[in-house]
Amino acid sequence: MKIVVIGGTGLIGSKLVSTLRAKGHEVLAASPDSGVNTITGEGLPAALAGAQVVVDVANSPSFEDAAVLKFFETSTTNLLAAEERAGVRHHLALSIVGSDRLPKSGYMRAKVAQEKLIKNSPIPYTILHSTQFFEFIGRIPEASPDGKSVRVSTAMFQPIVSDDVVAALAELTLGTPINGIVEVGGPERFRMDELVERVLRAKGDKREIIRDTHVPYFGAEIDDQSLVTGPGARSGSKRFETWLKESQAAK
Predict the structure, then answer these.
(1) Which of 102, 147, 225, 250 is deepest in the core (most CB within 10 A)?
(2) Could you tell me if 142 and 212 are in contact, meaning their C-beta atoms sit under 8 angstroms apart?
(3) To 10 degrees, what angle do helices 11-22 and 162-173 make?
């Protein structure tokens, strides 16, 4: 079948496109670079013509509160309207575990707004909530003004390798819409400061780690329940230590 992946050139999108193509499907990697712009609507009708499934893994270029909300609301509204006209039968979107538990985060509020639009659309849907990716752990710490230290939350989280997220997305893409949310997280839970320190040290970054229970994550203070999956969630298979060793060997 024809599948359109919005944000098909990013970390998750490009891997998903390759996975689905390897399974014999016609897959369009849609992005502004390929002439498909969900903000302006440019290229959407042609891209969606004949598509049975649309997978939205696009992300906002800005994380500023007003900008990120405008991006997800505009992009999702335009995309769903174009899908309805094209007769798309399944809309799948990637979102975040804990999005509904962190209302003080502008980014999370924007993801919740995106999910609400999807739920209110007549198009059958599936939303995948994923935990943070291993690949992005090094971007979590907040650098101090002097650049000699980083502040990191001590809350629990449950990161997952991007390949395991792609595998879950691919399975859901080829399945029946559930008109609900599926959660996926890594197979282990850790203190955030512990993993950030291990990733930074593996990169040769010797900045001091300052552990702070109040340091924000995407603009909101978090606790041990904010970023972990609930009962019935799917679990990735790759453990953190294995990924860290492999990523070091790849350098």
Answers:
(1) 102
(2) no
(3) 50
Give the sign of the dihedral formed by CA 210, CA 214, CA 144, CA 218: positive
Q: How far, in Å, CA of 87 to CA of 124, rounded?
A: 11
Radius of gyration of the chain, Cα coordinates, nearest whole angstrom = 18
Rounded Cα distance between 243 and 251, Å, is 13
Backbone angles phi, psi at 234, to 5 degrees: -80, 155
Q: Give the residue among 155, 130, 150, 115 at the shortest CA–CA distance from 233.
A: 130
Report the Cα–Cα distance between both ends of the chain, in Å, rounded: 37
The identity of residue 173, as a single letter, is T
Per-residue CA distances from 13 to 10, 79, 156, 163 (Å): 5, 16, 27, 11
Q: Could you tell me the two tokens for 247?
A: 């990523």
The C-alpha atoms of residue 29 and residue 39 are separated, in whole angstroms, by 16
The pair phi, psi for residue 95, each rounded to 5°, is: -130, -160
Is there a contact between 214 and 142 (Cβ–Cβ < 8 Å)?
no
In the 8-state DSSP scheme, what is residue 153? -
